[in-house]
Specification:
With about 120 residues, the chain is α+β, with helices and mostly antiparallel strands. Helices cover about 25% and strands about 30% of the residues. The chain has a five-stranded mixed beta sheet, covered by helices on one side. It starts with 9 loop residues before the first strand and ends in a 13-residue tail after the last strand. About 25% of the residues are buried. The model has no long low-confidence stretch (mean pLDDT about 90).
Length: about 120
């Protein structure tokens, strides 16, 4: 996402969980078909733009695109020592599935019939 002048204010990416084989290995039996699980990566919103709905919009857009691609579950992990980040993911519907030394792991079921979310401020 960019400001009117072109400066990037937020970004994210989605890939399947098999790109990160150590994650399925941490949860034996949970992600046996890791290539069928969407994984949300590198969600970033510029500090001065946080609290404007951009993170929620990026998450929802990513979820909807993953659902359109046939995924039914979204996985992500976040730093365990970032309380505000963990609270954000819980607030947008992610459920904790485990923790390790430095990360908290979340997942969320995806809607079968997604609708594109409106862009913040639109």
């Amino acid at each position: 996402m960019r400001e009117a002048g072109g400066t990037i204010v937020g970004s994210t990416a989605v890939r399947h969980l098999a790109w990160k084989p150590n994650i399925p290995a941490m949860f034996p039996g949970r992600y046996e078909r890791a290539d069928e699980i969407a994984s949300l990566w590198r969600v970033y919103v510029r500090r001065d733009m946080r609290g404007c709905g951009i993170g929620t919009w990026l998450a929802r857009l990513s979820e909807d695109e993953a659902a359109r691609a046939g995924y039914r579950t979204m996985y992500l992990h976040a730093s365990s020592d970032a309380a505000a980040t963990l609270a954000f993911w819980r607030a947008v519907g992610y459920v904790e599935v485990g923790t390790c030394t430095t990360s908290t792991h979340f997942e969320k079921p995806l809607a079968a019939t997604p609708a594109l979310p409106a862009m913040p401020g639109a």
